[in-house]
Amino acid sequence: MLTNLAFMYKGHKINIEYKYAPFLDTLRVHFTKKNQCPLDFISALPKLPKLETLILQFSGPVQVSRALRHTFRFANFKMIVFFLVKSWKECICSLAYLLKAAPSLEYFGVHGFSKLKEQPSELNVTWPEDLTFARLHIIVIKGFSGEPELMELLYFLLRRAPALESLQLETRAYEPFVFRKEKHKSEDEERCRYATEMASTHLAPKVPSTVAFSIT
Known about the structure:
By secondary structure, this protein is α/β, with parallel strands linked by helices. It has one domain. The protein is about 25% helix and about 20% strand. It has five helices and eight strands. It has an eight-stranded parallel beta sheet. The chain is globular and about 45 Å long. It comes from Triticum aestivum (Wheat). This is At1g61320/AtMIF1 LRR domain-containing protein. Pfam families: LRR_At1g61320_AtMIF1.
């Protein structure tokens, strides 16, 4: 019997076997190899009755069909954080389907790694209908670069989260596996300025007055 309160794994996909973990309340899974999906990992775990916090790193985007195969594990989560290493473009709607399966969700976070080297383009995202995040109070986006898919995701969440109290955007680059080099400093400053402009110009007008909104 696993008695840990929290479990974290970082690396390539492996098999971890245990039968029962009654006290586990936090699970962090950071997959680093392309085409390996952490959703497969959590779906293979046994029943985790106390698990409320889930933190996953995706090395690439996940199609809606694949996401739907794993939504049964999301029912009890109150806090979900996704690390998105690559751009998800239209696949960003997969996150909404995962969140749809978490009716108790109170905190949602996204940590992005985009450098916006490509020119942003318009996206045609199909969102799930008849969906409300009734208990969602806090949204935090780190490593925000003004990506079109994250902008679309935030537009969607703002429309569907009536109890939202706080929306926080952090533009500082988020790179957990490598150290930043000085030669990239000016490039990152330009990215941060762009992200701040996008959020201030296009996102801020859509934020309800009841929501505390910050950009740093």
